[in-house]
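Methods — Computational structure assignment.
A single polypeptide chain was analysed. Its primary sequence is given first, followed by the predicted tertiary structure written as structure tokens.
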Amino acid sequence: MRTPIPLLFSKALLRLPLLWVSALSAQIYWQPIDQAFQRARFQERLLLIYIYTPWCSPCLMMDQNVWNHPFIASYATANFHCVRLNAEERDSIPFNGTLFPYLPDLHANQLAYLLLEGNMQYPALVLMEPSGEILLALRGYLKPALVDTILHYFATRSYQRVSWEDYQKEYQSQL
């Protein structure tokens, strides 16, 4: 028995919203920093390290407006090894063969302290080469369009040949 065309068409339409919703619910694949570092070295991709604290209001805004944005989440996951690092993590954090402890006097984990060079402002975005060289450390809330531009600038390795000012003139975020 043949199914009438309108019924097939309506079944197809019912599936579309599910596809649309799943595309909009893209999430960043956050990895432990040691695992991300090892993968970055193997795959020659940069590390994107997001440093936050649970009590930080701008951090919560970054989570909602930036990291949960479907285009940013998809692009970041496809082009970086992404790490979400609680700056006040009390458990020691393994990284590159070293365990970094919590420093009670500083109310911060030693790894976060080193990545931010002691300037403990949250949220923070750190981009790191697979060699461990820090390329960028930005602090404070960043708008989605700016994060999109930054991610494209570094993922395409444009930073190696074009100044940030020139890149901002040529790349226009769609966010």
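Note: The helical segments are 5-24, 33-43, 57-67, 70-79, 110-115, 144-155, 164-170.
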